[in-house]
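Quick one, tokens below. Sequence please?
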């Protein structure tokens, strides 16, 4: 094939690719390492330049992403840790943001070719889906509030009956204990649903303050009332003292959920180690237990809502509701951080969670 024929075939292929990209419903732009847009499809042009794709080329990425708000409508400063410009500097990711009158699902990915530093940014209009989700969230929120009072009454009554359990027969005591466990599970489910709903709707705004993570973690450990067979150890920090911006109440909720998770899937004696490490971009907290671990198949699903680990049902505890790790993820993201499962060697038992925060 001649060079001219090859070039003609290449132009035809590129033209077909352009038609395919322009037909895509989601906006796509490719950003150069310097932060300027190299290319965008028609949906991107409709979103950012009133339909003129040529006007996208050369625009700065920060121009495309300003002004921007959180999914609940709270304005976000470009320097904020949760702003997409800050998050994409830490690697691939996604998030829901408001832009003008639209609610967009943004996703960013590094492109290994044509060279290091190129970025693919995708934006999807969530208006139809979000309307349905908002209606669902309102229903769940109303339902949770309606159930809150009667559940509190039932839980209190069961505790009173528990104080008189010695007067009951063995069968009645077992049924009472089962009722207490199931009621406690419902209370936890209800509470987690309310926290998630408040985060999504913006009713709960976290107050981030610079904190010495190692010192705070040791204080949290000292406040825990643990069974005698639980060994919860805060190891010496690695590297320089790590100061991170966090909401103390939110982090305490995250650690409480991880503690419950570790106890649920650990045989006695439960052994848990926590360690803080400074990094070039911020700080990390590693939560490592020696429990039953998680098989390969469900590892990418554990942070989804209502996903429960069926492989390891702990005989001495009531089933979880499948919201604990989803709540951890939501709270960490609200603090501008991340939480992920670390790979565990086949010869190692347990599970390791890695919590990360950017530099303050």
């Amino acid at each position: 094939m001649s060079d001219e024929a090859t070039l003609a075939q290449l132009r035809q292929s590129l033209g077909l690719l352009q038609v395919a990209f322009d037909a895509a419903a989601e906006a796509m732009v490719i950003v150069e390492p310097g932060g300027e847009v190299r290319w965008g499809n028609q949906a991107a042009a409709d979103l950012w330049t009133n339909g003129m794709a040529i006007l996208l080329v050369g625009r700065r990425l920060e121009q495309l992403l300003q002004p921007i708000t959180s999914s609940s409508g709270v304005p976000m400063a470009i320097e904020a840790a949760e702003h997409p410009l800050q998050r994409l500097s830490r690697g691939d990711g996604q998030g829901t943001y408001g832009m003008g009158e639209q609610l967009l699902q943004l996703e960013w990915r590094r492109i290994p070719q044509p060279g290091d530093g190129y970025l693919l940014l995708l934006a999807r209009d969530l208006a139809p889906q979000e309307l349905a989700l908002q209606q669902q969230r309102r229903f769940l929120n109303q339902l949770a509030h309606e159930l809150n009072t009667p559940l509190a009454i039932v839980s209190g009554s069961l505790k009173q009956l528990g104080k008189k359990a010695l007067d009951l027969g063995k069968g009645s005591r077992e049924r009472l204990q089962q009722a207490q466990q199931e009621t406690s599970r419902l209370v936890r489910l209800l509470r987690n649903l309310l926290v998630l709903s408040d985060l999504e709707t913006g009713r709960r705004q976290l107050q981030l303050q610079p904190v010495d993570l190692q010192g705070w973690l040791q204080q949290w450990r000292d406040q825990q009332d643990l069974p005698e067979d639980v060994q919860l150890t805060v190891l010496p920090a690695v590297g320089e003292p790590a100061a991170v911006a966090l909401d103390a109440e939110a982090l305490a909720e995250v650690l409480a959920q991880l503690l419950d998770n570790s106890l649920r899937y650990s045989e006695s004696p439960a052994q848990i180690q926590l360690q803080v490490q400074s990094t070039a971009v911020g700080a990390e907290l590693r939560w490592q237990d020696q429990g039953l671990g998680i098989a390969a198949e469900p590892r990418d699903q554990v942070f989804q809502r209502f996903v429960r680990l069926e492989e390891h049902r702990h005989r001495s505890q009531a089933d979880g509701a499948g919201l604990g790790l989803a709540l951890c993820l939501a709270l960490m993201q609200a603090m501008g951080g991340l939480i992920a499962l670390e790979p565990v060697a086949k010869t190692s038992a347990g599970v390791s969670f890695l919590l990360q925060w950017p530099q303050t």
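Residues 311-316 have pLDDT under 50 and may be disordered. The CA atoms of residues 138 and 197 lie 8 Å apart.
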